[in-house]
């Protein structure tokens, strides 16, 4: 699961017993050598799906981590790209690994996605692999924040993977991981919020609508389809309606 350049079990344990912010500060130097980083295939497929919707002027990578999504935005946005994350350690790695001397102006901002420090200045907001860190009750506020930083008609996009079926080992692995995290958070403080099975597509699309978005799911054809014809991976693309239409 982890290569020789990835974190040791001891380092992972130290991360898991920390807060989310401190945990990612600790993991940051080795994050790109873990399976937690969004695979390049997903990033490339998302970029390909978003390209026809542009061109975009200004983009924001929400919970940017070490900057993989910023690199996607750099190929889609003409003027500026911003990465925001609450982990100083992740931002430090992002600053070092992402080239900012070519393409649109790049900025890095330390901030909480639940209280974004921006006005409505973005045409595109993306996020990759961060939603497990938000409890379901936090989604209305999170999506409202994203809506508040988008210009009318701007897009909010993020990939989703089809959940494994109960007949697959992956289903039980994710179920077990979430159960372990719930026990950990019941017994240890501060909590470390990271769940794989709480971000349900139907609920998410409903919350996006209530936050003032018009949302759709676009299949990512590079990942094929399941036996029932449903896509194995998709891209949620939500368009920000004007405040008057969203009311």
UniProtKB/TrEMBL annotation:
One term of GO molecular function: methyltransferase activity
Keywords assigned: Methyltransferase, Transferase
Gene Ontology BP term (one): methylation
Domain Methyltransferase: 60-154
Statement: the UniProt record of this protein carries the keyword Acetylation: no
SUPFAM superfamilies according to UniProt: S-adenosyl-L-methionine-dependent methyltransferases
The protein's name: Methyltransferase domain-containing protein
Organism expressing this protein natively: Streptomyces broussonetiae
Taxonomic lineage: Bacteria, Bacillati, Actinomycetota, Actinomycetes, Kitasatosporales
């Amino acid at each position: 699961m982890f290569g020789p350049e990835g974190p040791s079990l001891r380092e992972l344990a130290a991360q898991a017993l920390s807060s989310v912010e401190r945990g990612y500060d600790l993991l940051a130097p080795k994050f790109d050598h873990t399976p937690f980083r969004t695979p390049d295939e997903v990033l490339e497929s998302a970029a390909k799906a978003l390209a026809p919707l542009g061109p975009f002027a200004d983009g924001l990578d929400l919970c940017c981590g070490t900057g993989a999504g910023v690199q996607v935005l750099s190929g889609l946005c003409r003027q500026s790209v911003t990465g925001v994350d609450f982990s100083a350690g992740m931002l430090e790695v992002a600053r070092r690994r992402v080239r900012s001397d070519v393409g649109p102006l790049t900025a890095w901002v330390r901030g909480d996605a639940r209280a974004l420090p921006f006005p409505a200045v973005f045409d595109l907001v993306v996020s990759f692999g961060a939603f497990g860190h938000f409890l379901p009750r936090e989604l209305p506020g999170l999506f409202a924040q994203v809506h508040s930083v988008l210009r009318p008609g701007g897009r909010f996009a993020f990939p989703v993977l089809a959940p494994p079926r109960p007949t697959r080992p992956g289903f039980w692995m994710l179920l077990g991981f979430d159960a372990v995290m719930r026990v950990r958070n019941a017994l240890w403080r501060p909590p470390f919020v990271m769940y794989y099975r709480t971000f349900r597509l139907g609920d998410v699309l409903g919350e996006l609508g209530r936050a003032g978005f018009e949302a759709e799911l676009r299949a990512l054809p590079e990942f094929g389809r399941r036996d029932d014809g449903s896509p194995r991976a998709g891209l949620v693309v939500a368009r920000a309606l004007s405040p008057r239409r969203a009311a």
